Structures are given as structure tokens and as C-alpha cells.
Amino acid sequence: MRGIGTLDEAARAAGVTLLSGCSSVPTLSAAMIDEHRERFSRIERIEHGISSSAKMPGLSTIQGVLAYAGKPILQLKDGRPHPVIGWQGLTLRKLPRLGTRLVANVDVPDLDLFAERYGAHTLSFQAGAGLKVAGLANALLAQAVKLGLVRDPAPWAARLHRCGTWFEGFGDGLSALYIDVHGLGQDGQPLSMSVQLTATHDHGPEIPSCAAVAVVHKLLAGHVPAPGPGPVPARSAWRSTCGRSTIRITCNCK
């Protein structure tokens, strides 16, 4: 995503619009922060993540997220790159309606973009499935890769996907995208905000499409985007997401 600007000249010459980040992250995650950005005079730390339902995504998604299992990925800590291991760093995260979910370190484009967009000095992202057994399986595979016992996690994707379908019936159908923002309020006092987007009825896998749906709606309404590369309009994607009956958004500030 960061390198999409290199296509600017070619895209403009061809009269083509290029949009990047058409997914939950970074479009919706940025929209969730932007919706309450005016509360903060300064943002120092952003911790966010996704906890999916037990319903398995497509095999290609599993292959993608396992590509960095057991390998170093970069997050940001106190303004400096902070290496962590993909699908390790298991954390129990308590989420409203979802209870306690197991999440681990995941690589997403937000970590490159949010430091520049919001000036945050510490950024982290974690993700996990609805059932803790899936998180443990991913962590064990990551450890095996780290120790050199497994050279390539890709062949394991189909096996984990198949095993995951056996447990889908034990899930509660709930998914969540959550964001914790810490910094200073407009009064100069410490301010923390937690925002959670919750999807019910196993509709979590549909959330990433909301950004693309918002773009299509604007095109059908007659909007003609300027040629060249750029991000998806975050607020349009946010409105498209909020309009769904199976989506609930909560926000707490203190």
C-alpha cells in the first residue's frame, strides 16, 4: 500500500483510478478512529485487532495469514520498529458480547500508515479466531516454523482449513474489529477510547467488503473519481458498514 504512489504517473496517463486498502484494515479501522479524532489533541498509542467467528474463511485467506507464521514482523514501540513473531504473543482479550478471545501478532498495512496519519508512537495489531483451539494451533505452527521444524507453513493451510470446518458448529457467530486509542484529550488530560464493531450471525467475513461496496455505491450515484492512486474514502465505507442490520458499533471514552 505504501508504494502505490509509484504508479501515479502511469495511472494518470491512462486515466485510471487506483484504490488501495479496500478492506477492514486500514479503511474501516481508520474510519473508526476518524469518527472520534476530534476528541484527541494528540494520539500516542493505538492497539487494535480482529477476532473472527468460528466460521472458516476461504482457503486463500488462510494461506495468506499463515505466510508469516513464525517469522518476524514489525510493529511500532515508542517510535521505533519493534520486531515480533507472527502468530505468537498470545493474548487473552476481553470483548463485549464475545467474552474472552485469544489473539496473536498479525501483519497489517495499518502499522505502516497509522504512524504517519495519526502521529502515534506505539502501534500493534493482533487477530484470532472465535475458538481458542484455532489460536493455539496457529501459535504451535508458528513455533515450529521459528524452530526450523517446519520450513514452509503453506502446505499446512489446507489441513488447518479442513480441521477448522469441523469445529464451526461450536462457535457463537460473533466477530469483532476493536480499536484502543490512547493519548491526550483537548483539555491536555490523558484520554483513552475503545471502539468495537461487532458482527453477528457469522457475517464477519462480509465486513471487509464494505469498503468496496461503498465505492460502488458512489460510482452508481454518478461520482467520477480522479485518475491516479489513492485510499478508499474512509467515511463512505463507515456509513456503508453502519447501515447493516447485523453490525453493531460501541464506543467508550475515559
Report on this structure.
By secondary structure, this protein is of the alpha+beta class. The chain has a single domain (2-253), classed as Dihydrodipicolinate Reductase, domain 2 (2-Layer Sandwich). The protein is built from eight helices and eleven strands. It has helices at residues 8-14, 24-34, 59-66, 110-118, 132-146, 154-166, 210-220, 234-242; strands spanning 17-20, 40-51, 72-77, 80-85, 91-95, 99-105, 122-128, 175-185, 190-199, 228-231, 247-253. Helix 2 (24-34) packs across helix 8, helix 3 crosses helix 6 (154-166) and helix 7 crosses helix 8. The two termini are 33 Å apart. 35% of the residues are buried. The model has no long low-confidence stretch (mean pLDDT 87).
Instruction: Please mark out the parts with pLDDT under 50 across 5 or more consecutive residues, or reply none.
Output: none
Radius of gyration, in angstroms, nearest whole number? 19 Å
> What CATH architecture do you see?
2-Layer Sandwich
Largest sheet properties: 7 strands, mixed
What's the average pLDDT? Answer: 87
Helix- and strand-based class? Answer: alpha+beta
